[in-house]
Amino acid sequence: MGALLSLPLLAVPSMGTLMSFGASCCGAAACSAICNQCGIFKSSMATRIAYAFLLLVNSIVSWLMLTPWALKKLEHLTLDYVNISCQGKQCYGYVAVQRVNFALGLFHFILAILLLGVKSSRDGRASLQNGYWGPKIIVWIAFVVLTFFIPETFFQVWGQYIALAGAMLFVLLGLILLVDLAHTWAEYCLDKIETTDSRGWRVLLIGSTLGMFTASFAMTIIMYIFFAQSGCAMNQAAITINLLVLLLITAVSVHPTVQEYNPKAGLAQAAMVAVYCTYLTMSAVSMEPDDQHCNPLIRASGTRTASIVLGAIVTMLTIAYTTTRAATQGIALGTNASHAYSKLGSDEEGGNEHSLIDQQPTSRRQMRAEALRAAVEAGSLPANALDDSDSDSDDEDSDSGNGRRRGKDDERGGTQYNYSLFHFIFLLATTWVATLLTQNIDYEAEGVAAVGRTYWASWVKIVSSWVCYAIYGWSLLAPVVMPGRFGY
């Protein structure tokens, strides 16, 4: 929001630059502060929302860098020191997008390194993740400025090879997480049905399954009607292959052999994968260029801006989901966000063979904390009681000490997600945004630059749907092929 509010001030170099710094600093910082003060948000959730907001602002700025208006304002801000112009097929706007996203990627890379090994908010480095928003925004903006002093050949190589590889890794990660979500959702509903025998959970599971299958077939019919006319061989092939694989994967999910080795596999997972892959196919055919007269949305008046905005919203939601889902799962690094409360009276901590408190607490707060730990150790209280105690202690400190009021800290006993992995996923997200905005862009086109309206982007989505089907199919067949490695 801060960056958007500062855009009108770009016409004045000195004051506009200063106000842009101030507004951008307030954006993510205010987002985190508001979320922390709201009772329904916890510290970890507020932090993730703030980083997602920062990525959204960065993506909007990157998109604007493709427009002639943004390029002219950039020249104006640099007092005409940077001359941005197109030479042949390569436009400097491409490099500008790579610079902006490289700066944010570098920002997340440094945070990922600095936050390696942080297990709870008791670690002093945890404040780098959850606080210091003003300095962090200033550092990010400084990185953006410094990237314009790096030779353009570096970003041409970066965008064509390194960023492209990172973007493909990000897409693959998103597909894996989607399949995992499908299994997690279905298994969670089945567990609820088995433990509670609730009719509501049955209705929810059956209704969502039927709804997703209905949406999949409805989108398929729409694609055949509007995007598969005569002469549109690419669209016809993509739509037909998606329909055939959808039916195949659905049949495999309920096959007796698959059910024998994985009783929880079924139509619910297949429905979620089917609707997502069908959506990817529909997005591909609806965002392709209209040189073959196969995309009526481009020819229709009034739909260009709407489709661009809708596509941007869906893209940002997907990125936000992928990053948060990957971080909370702790994949790739083998982390676990489970609480790691220290046990009293352990041999390692003093050789005691009992669980009694043998030290005199030095304050009323410590006496209360020791009593709670003893109760948790004895099984009288749940482990999250220590979280409440830590939160209350923080509030007491803030009231009696420096006067700084903090939101509820839900990571005193253990982080909710792996900080370093979180920033690594955001690093991959910046490469995906840069690649999506710049790959095969028509630099001769006038007006607002369309996001993802290229054959490259369309084929990435089509192939991604096939890969998603393959990942889900393997998740069904793996227990059959390697039964010893799965505990069904």
Describe the structure.
The chain has 18 helices and two strands. The chain is mostly helical and 488 residues long. It has a two-stranded antiparallel sheet with strand order 1-2. Helix 10 runs antiparallel to helix 12 (267-286). It is flat. The model is unreliable at 1-25, 37-41, 86-91, 330-358 and 394-407 (pLDDT under 50).
SSE string: HHHHEEHHHHHHHHHHHHHH
Major sheet attributes: 2 strands, antiparallel
Helix content: 55-70%
Q: N- to C-terminal separation?
A: 48 Å
Give the beta-strand count: 2
**Low-pLDDT regions:** 1-25, 37-41, 86-91, 330-358, 394-407
Summarize this, please?
It is built from 18 helices and two strands. By secondary structure, it is mainly α. The longest helix has 45 residues, at 152-196.
Helix/strand layout:
Layout: H1 2-6, H2 13-37, H3 43-64, H4 68-77, E1 86-87, E2 90-91, H5 92-114, H6 126-130, H7 133-147, H8 152-196, H9 199-226, H10 233-253, H11 256-261, H12 267-286, H13 296-299, H14 304-329, H15 364-378, H16 385-400, H17 419-438, H18 455-481
Antiparallel strand pairs: 1-2
Helix pairs in contact: 2-3, 2-7, 3-5, 3-14, 3-17, 5-7, 5-8, 5-17, 8-9, 8-12, 8-17, 8-18, 9-10, 9-12, 10-12, 10-18, 12-18, 14-17, 15-16
